[in-house]
Amino acid sequence: MEKKPDRCKVNEREQFSYEYKQKILAKSDDRCCHCGRKAYIGYGATVDHYVPISKGGINDDCNLVMLCETCNKEKDDLIIDPDNYLVYLKEPYISI
């Protein structure tokens, strides 16, 4: 049986300001980028690294999207085809 690679938990998570979260949320008209549910900062909206930090992702606008908690848990640390996953991300921000 093939052994899974060890996963490294990121201990130093960057804390994003409320204003920065608003900027990320605006990229999808205040909706979860995957399911389209209305998202509210502090009430289920989560900033997600499209390419996880553990897989080489960066803390940059082009790699950050807003997901609801349910979609964020579903995505986990996967990298999913943006055409199939980031359905509600506005066109100018699709550069992944």
Please outline the helices and strands.
Layout: H1 18-26, E1 45-49, E2 64-68, H2 69-75, H3 82-85
Antiparallel strand pairs: 1-2
Strand count, sense and closure of the main sheet? Answer: 2 strands, antiparallel
Oligomeric grouping of the chains: single chain
For the secondary structure, the number of strands is 2
Would you tell me the overall average pLDDT? 84
Strand order of the largest sheet: 1-2
If you consult CATH, what is the topology? DNA Binding (I), subunit A
> How many separate domains?
1
Report the helical percentage. Answer: 10-25%
Radius of gyration, in angstroms, nearest whole number: 13 Å
CATH class: Mainly Alpha
What portion of the residues fall into strands of 2 or more residues?
5-15%
The CATH level-2 architecture is identified as: Orthogonal Bundle
* Backbone shape: globular
- Judged by helices, strands and strand pairing, the structural class is alpha+beta
The span between the termini is 34 Å
Number of helical stretches of at least 4 residues: 3
**Topology pattern, helix = H, strand = E:** HEEHH
List segments where confidence is low: pLDDT < 50 over at least 5 consecutive residues. 7-11
